[in-house]
């Protein structure tokens, strides 16, 4: 499986590169015709400008979150929903049917984010502590590695943007399929780059497997937890369905979780075996409730959404001012770029937190650990007992 996924990953990179080059050349040929309405000079600058903004803002945000985690966490959870709401207003101002739908979803999402922020606000202090203690001794050349990762993602994103522009110039049904394929491969590639920060010294095959599996399983487990908390025990049928779905998610998370990347990097294990071993260690150390309540993943997600929203506002407003019909698609692509580049910039901090949890689970009695985790465990036990 490792070799298979590695081969598939490299093949898709080669095929996508060829496709993007062909689409780019064809796009400029189409744009040169007087009968074509595609204007490269009005389509590319807003999107490339938003990509540049993604790189700058992501690096600044990574710097802030490392030097002042408390402030970064508060900004991400409090300002993120406002930026999402601003994106919704922008799409409503654009006015086309797709933009209206996206704008409505964005505003609803901002409300959900705000409610979630209010719910998890008591966890901010612990999130700050765990982020601070786990990144207190960053790996060698971390700043250089982060900068190189951001630059790599910017170059790759800008390269794919040229292909998307070429497909947009023709605008056929097949070109829409090409754009979807490009976005899907872009998502997988950026996940691989993000997860490579844990396992850079080994082959990418195991990382490719995990990068394809973890987002899917994480979504299933998150939806299962949300479903079970909403359904409760009010309806026997719904409760039984939610309980079955929850047990399925619990089984899947054992063999595909992001903490498994730590064992992949340290012990060069296969990804499924690494996931099972780390999850088993969490169960033995009774860390599952602590892992479930940890806000590091949510912080990185909210940060990605915030940076993606900023890029959307930059690219979407620019496109709205110079060519309104391009504003919707430019806004969508800008959000993808901003979100993933920010996640790559913060990946090393999330990796440090994951490694800290895994190391603690393997040897909770080690004198190298302070009281951050034990104190938090006691707080959770007292809360459950009450």
From TrEMBL:
InterPro entries: Choline_transptr-like. Pfam families: Choline_transpo. It is a multi-pass membrane protein. Keywords: Membrane, Transmembrane, Transmembrane helix. GO terms for cellular component: plasma membrane. It is found in: Cell membrane; Membrane. The chain crosses the membrane at residues 7-31, 43-61, 142-161, 167-188, 298-320, 332-359. One of its GO terms (molecular function) is transmembrane transporter activity. Choline transporter. Belongs to the CTL (choline transporter-like) family. This is Choline transporter-like protein. It comes from Gossypium barbadense.
């Amino acid at each position: 499986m490792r070799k298979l996924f590695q081969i598939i990953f490299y093949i898709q990179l080669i095929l996508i590169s060829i496709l993007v080059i062909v689409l780019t050349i064809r796009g400029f040929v189409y744009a040169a015709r007087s009968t074509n309405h595609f204007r490269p000079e009005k389509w590319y600058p807003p999107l490339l400008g938003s990509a540049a903004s993604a790189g700058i803002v992501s690096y600044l945000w990574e710097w802030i979150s490392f030097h002042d985690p408390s402030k970064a966490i508060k900004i991400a959870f409090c300002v993120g929903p406002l930026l999402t709401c601003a994106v919704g207003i922008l799409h409503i101002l654009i006015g086309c049917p797709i933009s209206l739908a996206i704008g409505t979803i964005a505003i609803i999402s901002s409300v959900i984010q705000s409610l979630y922020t209010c719910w998890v606000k008591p966890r901010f202090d612990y999130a700050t502590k765990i982020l601070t203690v786990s990144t207190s001794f960053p790996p060698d050349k971390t700043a250089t590695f982060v900068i190189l990762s951001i630059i790599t993602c910017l170059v790759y994103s800008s390269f794919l943007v040229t292909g998307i522009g070429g497909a947009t110039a023709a605008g056929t049904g097949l070109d829409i399929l090409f754009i979807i394929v490009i976005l899907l491969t872009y998502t997988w590639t950026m996940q691989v780059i993000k997860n490579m920060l844990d396992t850079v010294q080994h082959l990418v095959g195991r990382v490719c497997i995990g990068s394809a599996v973890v987002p899917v399983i994480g979504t299933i487990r998150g939806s299962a937890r949300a479903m079970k908390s909403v359904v409760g025990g009010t309806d026997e049928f719904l409760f039984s369905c939610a309980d079955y779905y929850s047990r399925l998610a619990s089984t899947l998370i054992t063999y595909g979780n992001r903490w498994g990347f730590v064992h992949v990097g340290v012990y060069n294990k296969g990804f499924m075996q690494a996931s099972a071993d780390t999850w088993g260690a969490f169960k033995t150390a009774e860390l599952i409730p602590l892992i479930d309540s940890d806000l590091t993943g949510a912080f990185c997600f909210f940060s990605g959404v915030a940076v993606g929203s900023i890029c959307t506002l930059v690219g979407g407003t620019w496109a709205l001012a110079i060519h309104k019909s391009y504003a919707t698609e430019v806004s969508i692509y800008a959000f993808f770029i901003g979100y993933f580049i920010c996640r790559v910039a913060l990946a090393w901090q999330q990796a440090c937190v994951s490694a800290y949890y895994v190391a603690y689970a393997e040897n909770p009695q080690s004198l190298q650990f302070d009281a951050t985790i034990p104190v938090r465990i006691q707080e959770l036990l007292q809360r459950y007992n009450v």
